[in-house]
Amino acid sequence: MAAAIFARKGVTNTTVRDIATEAGMLSGSLYHHFASKDEMLDEIIRNALDADIALDEALARSSELEPRAAVRELLHRGMRFAVDHPDVSAIMRDSSKEFAGTATYELIRRRDRAIRLAWTRVLERGVTAGAFRADLDPDLVFLAMISVVISFGRWYRPDGPRTMDQIADTMCDLLLDGLANPV
Predict the structure, then answer these.
(1) 61-101 pLDDT, tens per residue?
(2) C-alpha angle 162/88/5, rounded to 5°?
(3) Concatenated DSSP letters of 10-76
(4) Angle at 84 (CA atoms; ends 4, 143), nearest 5 degrees
(5) Which of 149, 5, 166 is nearest to 78 (CA)?
(6) Is residue 99 within a helix (H) or strand (E), and if so which, with residue range?
(7) What DSSP state is assigned to residue 96?
(8) What one-character DSSP code corresponds to residue 161?
(9) Residue 154 reports pLDDT greater than 80
């Protein structure tokens, strides 16, 4: 519930009182569990991201899944995160500038670096295995892929004409095969 308030009002505009009121409790009761609004936000972000990052890192270390399948898995999971955690996605996408320079911002930067490293390792493995072009810039491709994931959270609607998996498959095809006609 706190994540929804942060997403709706923005981090700066959300108060502990707002969260407590919506929860039907006194703000002092929240301070019994959290020292500050920032601590609440950190907990929300950790709970949402850490398990997903662990999966990305395991995928990057694994050689069992061929690189193209691994990229598909990363994109599907990234989009699934946006569907499963829309409020956290919105906070990270729309409010990160509001808490620049704070411990929460550093937490997100560390999580971003871990995600970037895992995804670029998969791409590098693909280049080494010959599954991807030798001149591929893994960091640039990561930025393109993560941009797809981030923007997806803005416009996707579960009741829309396509499922999340259909959209993820289409995006994977575009990123992996480009716009060329199949031969």
Answers:
(1) 888 889 999 999 999 999 999 999 999 998 888 877 777 77
(2) 110
(3) -TTT--HHHHHHHHTS-HHHHHHH-SSHHHHHHHHHHHHHHHHHHHHHHHHH--SS-HHHHHHHHHH
(4) 100
(5) 149
(6) none
(7) G
(8) S
(9) yes
- What ranges do the domains of the chain cover? 36-177
What is the rounded distance in angstroms from the CA atom of residue 29 to the CA atom of residue 33?
Answer: 7
CATH number, domain 36-177, options 1.10.357.10, 3.40.1280.10, 3.30.470.20, 3.90.1150.10: 1.10.357.10
Give Dmax over CA atoms of the chain in angstroms: 66
Structure tokens at 40: 């609440």
pTM: 0.84
CA distance 125 to 132: 9
Half-sphere exposure of 70 (CA within 13 A, CB side): 26
**SS3 of 157, please?**
coil
Confidence band, pLDDT 50/70/90 cuts, at residue 164 = very high
